[in-house]
Amino acid sequence: MVPFSQTVDALLLVLALAACITDLRHRRIPNTLTAPAILLGILVQTGFGGVEGSASGLTGTGLAIGLLAVPFAMGWLGGGDVKLFAAIGAMKGPEFLMTACLLTALFGGIFAAVSLFRARRLQLAMTHLFLSWYVPVTAEMEALSQRRLPYAPAIALGVVGALIMRG
Q: I need a surface site. Which of 14, 20, 119, 136 has the fewest CB within 10 A?
C-alpha cells in the first residue's frame, strides 16, 4: 500500500505539471484545474488526518490566499497562481506552503532575470527598480513593467524543491 504522503506528493506533482503546461500554452491556470485540487486536498487531508488534517488543509488554503492577496491586487500574480498556491496549501498544509512560496519566489526571480537578460533589458529593469523614484519613467520602462511571464514553472520548481527539502 502506498503511504499517504507519497500519494499526496504524486497528486501535487501532477497538479504542478498540468499547471505548467496550461500556463505555458495559454498563459493561464484554469479554475477547472485548481478548484478540484483545493477540494481534493482538503478532503484527502481530512480523510487521512481527521480534524487535524482538515485544519491543516484549510489553514494552508487560507494562508496561501492571505499571503498572495496583495501581490495579486498589485498585478504581480494572476488569480490562477493564487489558486494554485491555495491547492498546494490544501494538499500539504501551511508549513510546506511557506517553503514552496519562498523557493518559488527564488525561481521566479531567476526566471525574470534570465528573461530580461535575454531581451537585453536587464539594465533598464534594474534602473526602473532601483531608481524609479529619481529617474523619470520612460515609455520603454513602463512597457517593461507590464511584461508578464508564466509563473507556474517557478511554482512547480518551488514545489519540487520543497518536496526535496522536506523529505
A: 136
Residues contacting 162, CB < 8 A, separation 6+: 92, 96, 99, 100, 103
Helix axis angle, 94-118 relative to 152-166, nearest 10°?
130
Residue 44 and residue 8 in contact, taking contact as beta carbons nearer than 8 Å: yes
Cα angle at 21 between 20 and 24, to 5 degrees?
A: 80
- Which residue type does 74 have? M
CA–CA separation, 55 and 41 (whole Å): 12
**What percent of the chain is modeled with pLDDT above 90?**
68
What are the angstrom distances between the C-alpha of 97 and each of 21, 112, 121? 21, 22, 32
Phi, psi of 78 (to 5 degrees): -90, 165
Instruction: Decide: helix, strand or coil at residue 161.
Output: helix
Residue 162 near residue 88, CB atoms below 8 Å? no
**What are the tens digits of pLDDT across the range 19-68?**
999 999 999 999 999 999 999 999 999 998 999 999 999 999 999 999 99
